[in-house]
Amino acid sequence: MKNMNGKNYSINAPLETHWMEAPCTTDNCGKFNNGWMINIDLELVLEDGRALGQQQYDYIKYVSGRKFKEERSDETHVMFIFYPEQQCFEQHKVKREDVDALYNRQQGRAASVPLTVREMHKTTMEPERFMDGMNEDIYQHNKEAKEG
Fold first, then answer.
1. Backbone phi, then psi, for 16, in 5-degree steps?
2. Which of 89, 113, 128 is the last residue of a domain?
3. Considering Cα of 43, then 51, then 44, then 52, what sign does the dihedral take?
4. Residue 40 lies in a domain
5. CB 13 within 8 A of CB 19
6. Structural domain of residue 66, as residue ranges?
7. Contact 77/90 with Cβ under 8 angstroms?
């Protein structure tokens, strides 16, 4: 809830402190379950001159350790078809079970200026105190609105 009598209420779970990397099996990854495909353009070169397509090809084929089938549509395009039940290339994140959400109330701060992670941790309230304060502010806001 934002801007209730100059106060902003939020419940947060910052990526840095409330999430962790997880394997495909933990994140119910469709690629792990079904397999996936990646198309590589061997002539793809970035503006800085790096041959990205060739780097991707070399990594997948010689470094990644994944099981795949390779199909070429022409001299410069390769499709890798990856078999199921192996880690994909995405970085999965799952919510940490051992860390509670952060209940924050900001006073006198512009609603468009988000809290930093450090500020969230410094201004965290107990859930009961957070709800009591928010309910009181909603009550006061409604009372003032009715009175004009």
1. -65, -35
2. 89
3. positive
4. yes
5. yes
6. 30-89
7. no
Q: Where are the beta strands (DSSP E) in the chain?
A: 7-12, 19-22, 36-41, 68-72, 77-82, 92-95, 102-107, 124-125
> In the chain, how many domains are there?
2
61 Cβ neighbours under 8 A, 6+ residues apart: 70
Query: 7-21, 30-44, 103-117, 118-132: which range is least confident on average?
Result: 103-117
For residue 79, being part of any structural domain is answered with yes
**What does the pLDDT look like over 73-129, one tens digit per residue?**
899 999 999 999 999 999 999 999 899 999 988 876 565 677 888 888 888 889 999
Q: How many CA atoms lie within 13 A of 104 on its CB side?
A: 24
Same domain for 97 and 85: no
Residue 108: strand, helix, or coil: coil
The yes-or-no verdict on residue 148 having pLDDT over 80 is no
The pLDDT assigned to 2 comes to: 47
Residue with tokens 């105190």: 129
In a domain, residue 71? The reply is yes
In a domain, 1, yes or no: no
**What is the reported pTM?**
0.59
